[in-house]
Amino acid sequence: MPGNSTRPPAEHEPPPPLNLMATLVRLGAIGLLSLLVTAAFAYTGGWLTPDRLTPVRVIDGFEQVNGLHPGFRRNHAKGLCIAGVFESNGQGLRFSKASVFDLGQVPVIGRFALAGGQPYLPDSPQAVRSMALRFMLSDGEEWRTGMNDIPVFPFNTPEAFYEQLMASLPDPATGKPDPAQMADFLTNHPETARALALIKNRPVSSGFANDTFNSLDAFFFVDPNGNEVPVRWSMVPGEPFAAATQPETPDNNYLFEDVIARVGRQPLEWHLVVTIGQPGDPTGDATIAWPDDRQRVDLGTLVIDHVEGEDSGRCRDVNFDPLILPDGIEPSDDPLLNARSAAYSRSFTRRAGEAKPPSAVTAPPLSKGA
Amino acid sequence: MILAMLFIGVGMVASLEDYHWLLRIHRPLGVAILVLAAVRLINRLVHPAPPLPGHMPAWQRFAAKSSHVLLYALMFLQPLVGWAMLSAASYPVVLWGSLLLPPILHHDAMRYAELRELHTLLAFLFFAVFLAHMAAALMHALIHRDGVFESMAPWRQTLPPPAPPPARGGG
Question: A220 by DSSP, 3-state: which?
Answer without folding.
Answer: strand
